[in-house]
Amino acid sequence: MVSIAAEMKVKANSPFSCPGEGGEMPELDVQIITSGGLRIPAHSSVLASASPVLGSMIKRPQKHRISKQKIPILGVPPDAVSVFMQFLYSFECSEKQLEKYGIHLLALSHVYLVPLLKQRCTRALSEGLTIENVVDVLQLARLCDAPDLYLRCMKLLSNNFKAVEQTEGWKFLQNHDPSVELQILQFMDEAESRKKRIRRHRQEQGLYLQLSEAMDCLEHICTEGCTSVGPYDMDPSKNMDPCSKFSTCHGLQLLIKHFAACNKRVNGGCLRCKRMWQLLRLHSSICDYPDECRVPLCRQFKLKVQQDGRGADARWTLLVRKVVSAKTISCLTLPKQKRRENLNNPKSS
């Protein structure tokens, strides 16, 4: 391994150069001591400007006056310290170096407050995560206050937990750091709960969207007619072709036909008729023009609510609000051209 001092002597104009006044190199007045006993000469001015922690250590008064101040950087491989020093001089670090010493460089960048190096290490470690190293990187990210890397590790671990369980890192974690194990299990439980909530929300939104589409089809059938069912004043021989929402519209037409002919609906004994009553009531709760609306019982439902002198119950009010919200979201997701057509012709399907 070639020391930084040797590189400076060989390459006067290298990125490690730190010329003083008159273009001359200042004195190498600091020595970095590594775990392997390697001594790396350096310039105190460069270290102090690159790291506030090293700057504080350099300014600290010494009991015994010596020619060169010694700063120990222990606990990591000497080569990792050399790469760290290289970065302090040049602010450059190769992908190969990050791949090889990323874990050690992240620890050094955190301890000595070098945010640019910490950012690069975090990104490199995120891209190099594997089943085998995710537990080790997770623990380091937790200690080095790297939340993005920590979350990335948690997600990988959660999605591949059965494979991670077989690794030596996980077994070591179980034996030596049960608190982190508990955090991981809690994260997985919360992640599963979030997935369930999202699935339930999507199912509910799908239901509200179906009801919103049914309201459009009901108004369409009662205003324009569609295939076999239409307004009372429409000539049956002039039935229209299937509309763009015919799958919903067809089922609604069958329900309307049943509702018109069923003998049980008077006593409330037919579930299909109850469903039709609910759809008519829901339309009335949403409709803004009951005096002009051609959907049966729309105005009557509005008058009944006014005569009762009280609003609908909370659950029904929530249902109406959800259906209106689903319809609004559906309109916003339409292509611009289709949206313009709907605005110009609100009665069209």
From TrEMBL:
SUPFAM superfamilies: POZ domain, TAZ domain. Coiled coil: none annotated. Pathway: Protein modification; protein ubiquitination. One of its GO terms (biological process) is response to hormone. One of its GO terms (cellular component) is nucleus. It comes from the Eukaryota. InterPro entries: BT1/2/3/4/5, BTB/POZ_dom, SKP1/BTB/POZ_sf, TAZ_dom_sf, Znf_TAZ. This is BTB POZ and TAZ domain-containing 1-like.
